[in-house]
Amino acid sequence: MEDMKKKLVVIGNGMTPGRTLERIFETNPAAYDVTIFNAEPRVNYDRIMLSPLLSGEKTYEEIIIHGDGWYIDRDIMLYKGFKVDRIDRRSRIVYSGDEECAEYDKLLIATGSNPIIIPVPGHVKEGVVTYRDYDDVEAMLWAAQRGEHAVVIGGGLLGLEAAAGLAMQGMQVTVVHLMPTLMERQLDPAAGHLLQKAVEDRGISVLTEANTKEILGGPSVEGVLLDDGTELPADLVVMAVGIRPSVSVGEAAGLEINRGIVVDNRMRTSDPNILAVGECAEFEGDVYGLVAPLYQMANVAADTLLGDRTGKPFEKQVLATQLKVTGIDLYSAGDFETSENREEIVLRDARRSIYRRLVIEEDKLVGTVLYGDTANNSWYLQLIRDGENISDFRDTMMFGPGYGEGQSADVAVASLADEVEICGCNGVCKGAIVNAINEHELSTIDEVRTYTKASSSCGTCTGLVEQLLTLTLGEDYKPTAADAVCGCTDLGHDDVRKLIEVQRLQTIPDVMQSLHWKSSEGCAKCRPALNYYLLSTWPGIYEDDQQSRFINERVHANIQKDGTYSVVPRMWGGVTSADELRAIADVVEKFEIPTVKLTGGQRIDMLGVRKEDLPAVWSDLGDAGLVSGHAYGKALRTVKTCVGSEWCRFGTQDSTGLGIRIEKFMWSCWTPAKVKMAVSGCPRNCAEATCKDVGVVCVDSGYEIHIGGGSGLTVRQTELLCKVATEDEVMEFVAAVVQLYRLQGHYLERMYKWLARVGIESIKEAIVDDDERRKELYDGFVHSQSFSQHNPWAERVNGVDAHEFKPLAELDLVEVV
Amino acid sequence: MTTDEWRLIGTVEDIPRSGARRIRIGEVDVGVFRTANDDVFALEDVCPHLGGPLSEGIVHGNEVTCPLHNMVIDLATGLSVEPTPKCVRSCLVRLEGEKVYLSKPDLRDLISQPIR
């Protein structure tokens, strides 16, 4: 009966109570009527992901754990933006202001913690923020758009993540840290120095042993004054010096308080009807701030609320931390203070920026610090937790669990025991994941997340979970994560593109350095891709790297099987003239070009040109006004046309003129893969526009714009993007859709594949529904063209890259012999 | 070493970094490669797969990828990077300051038994 349901009230809607509720509803959905009071006006989101949110690597939607529907489905009453200010323990009612109250049978306090604000003069000025929740991130992003300088006070985990995020947003960031080395609570000094260097390499200044004296400025912050008199300019000051459990509501209710709200090993406070979990709870003198122990608390609290006494009570936890700054891998766990009865094993490889330290006490691993390569962290953490005797493998433990059986990562994962915890956040061990994969026939990482929660919080174990899928399913497992660009990286094309943008990487070595390329100079797969991504992301800034282009694009002609080249001059819209044909005929005779052929794109192809002859061939063609046809490039190739209304008795519009106009506007732009276009003058479609990357079909009332066709390895008909009324609109829509493809397409991904991947709807949203976005894309294309539109043939006739076309030396046979 | 056993073919600067140039001796082509670290290697300019001009490939690390079908060749050994490697004939290089010399005996070998 409905009335018999007990009432559970939750104060706070962070990740920990979210987990408690999940567990209650999974175990016994009928146990409680739930009411939540959340001081933040939003649903439960992944607070660990604030740093990726700040850096731009994630969006708010991507970090939501429970959307509104989750609460609705469970009949949970969620008060968003309501702070509880009073608990009446006698009547068992909580009050939020004068308007709202709720009765409870059981009360769960999860008020979390408050950031500490150092009360230096000026700390209330506008522009001084903490780093704690979504509102703080919003405030920081707002400041980053307007200001130039940021000062982050505090060089701990949060401070460094804030600094890295703000730097990615383009701010000049200085970290002011009181202690001699960064993250001194988690790291020993040696790792702290490595970290400082890595942070500084990102353009972030670090001042250690620096104490803030005053925050300067008028109503808004303008600078920070340090004890030693240094004055730092600042448009934004982030205080990230620590957190303090938020206990006021419990304190006012008379619960036992120490640093936090004191709880027993079943999460009960001094009032048995009131439980506390999360950062506000104190257990045996410790307050926890990391997700793994907090989720433990959450589970224990759920068991207590469900009356289940069989579950494991809460115990003191081994703490592990990981810095979430892309490109800096840093992990520490356990206790790594040095003392007399402790021994250390240290591996230092300064050149590769790898540092590993294992702290051993009485043949047991008690702590570890890993920097640079943190792949084996779960194994070490398990050894610390289990207190296993390590004397048998002490010699090799530095190299990880797979040592001796081959060093590859999957061997290392295969050799892990079933009890080893893979997902630290959610406390999921290897055995549980493998069982779930087998039992429920899981085949994707998302399914594993759904069933086991592994990899669903901070995501750093995603690689391990994928390896478990591979181990369990063998070749049946197809990773859903983006395929890696090549063997030089694990990142997919989208990741690389996004990181180039948000980290403002502007050279190929920068990309390889910052994104931890596994090879020193990449390979013939990734180098051309990176060159394209940099070129399309930073037009006018990035300098095209010729050595990262395929030979065809380097010498602006198509290499043939015998090492000769083919030359295809541009014929705008497929229209030519007597002068052009005469020039071509003369060139063919003069240079003894063996084959002349018409192409499918309405051009003339001269095949078998010797490389040395190319500049002279181009020079002669150029004299007749012929320019490069880019038949060799990942670029706009051709715009094929029919004769249209000028001649054809069915023609509805001037398709030839429009084709020429498009080609003259868009030629010489680089694209992810080749782009072929066509304009047909009527729906009879003689220019075959509906199997081109972009096709325009003229009709009486205007122009249909079709995209994503192809007729090569795959034959594909286009999809209709939209219909427009004027030629000017055709120009704008076509340029905008090509620009969208230029920015989203993976290198070598034809337009039809891109369309299949992102979906026609998302393209329509950007190009058809959103006038502003279309205009922005169009302007982006025009901007890019201003740097790109020139005739590469003429440049080479005038001596550019002359070394490409002549041998370094021609040796006399007789002399050598 | 006697000077008449080495042939000067140009300077390091003549070859683009992470790139290559070609030497022609009669009908035989030799690719001269310069890595990002300014090491210089010389190989017969014929891919052991289907004869592609290696000097037109992309140079990465101490390797070059053939422009025709992407076979990867180790510049130092002339061996293709695959389980059962095929071999390109190489020619010893000597650097004297900026000057690049090729071994004449090696060149003679290349000319006497051209692959194509």
Question: Could you outline the blueprint of secondary structure elements for this entry?
Answer:
The complex is a heterodimer of chains A (817) and B (116).
Chain A: E1 6-11, H1 15-27, E2 32-38, E3 44-45, H2 50-55, E4 64-66, H3 68-73, E5 77-80, E6 86-88, E7 93-96, E8 100-103, E9 106-109, E10 113-115, E11 128-130, H4 134-146, E12 149-153, H5 157-168, E13 172-176, H6 189-201, E14 205-207, E15 212-217, E16 221-226, E17 231-233, E18 236-239, E19 243-245, H7 248-252, E20 261-262, E21 274-276, E22 281-283, E23 286-287, H8 291-305, E24 320-322, E25 330-334, E26 342-349, E27 354-361, E28 364-371, H9 377-386, H10 409-414, E29 421-423, E30 428-429, H11 430-439, H12 445-452, H13 462-473, H14 493-502, H15 508-514, H16 526-537, H17 551-555, E31 558-559, E32 565-567, H18 578-590, E33 595-598, E34 604-609, H19 614-623, E35 636-641, H20 644-647, H21 655-666, E36 675-680, E37 694-699, E38 702-707, E39 710-711, E40 715-716, E41 719-724, H22 727-744, H23 751-758, H24 760-769, H25 771-788, H26 792-797, E42 809-811, H27 813-816
Parallel strand pairs in A: 1-2, 1-9, 2-5, 9-21, 11-18, 12-13, 12-18, 13-14, 20-22, 35-36, 36-37
Antiparallel strand pairs in A: 3-4, 6-7, 7-8, 10-19, 15-16, 16-17, 22-23, 24-25, 25-28, 26-27, 27-28, 29-30, 31-32, 32-34, 33-34, 37-38, 38-41, 39-40
Helix pairs in contact in A: 1-8, 11-13, 14-16, 18-19, 22-24, 22-25, 24-25
Chain B: E1 6-11, E2 19-25, E3 28-34, E4 40-44, E5 58-60, E6 63-65, E7 72-74, E8 90-91, E9 93-96, E10 99-103, H1 104-112
Antiparallel strand pairs in B: 1-10, 2-3, 3-4, 4-8, 5-6, 6-7, 9-10
Features:
heterodimer, A: 817 residues, alpha/beta, FAD/NAD(P)-binding domain, 5-stranded parallel beta sheet, 27 helices, 42 strands, 33% helix, elongated, B: 116 residues, mainly beta, Rieske Iron-sulfur Protein, 3-stranded antiparallel beta sheet, 1 helix, 10 strands, 39% strand
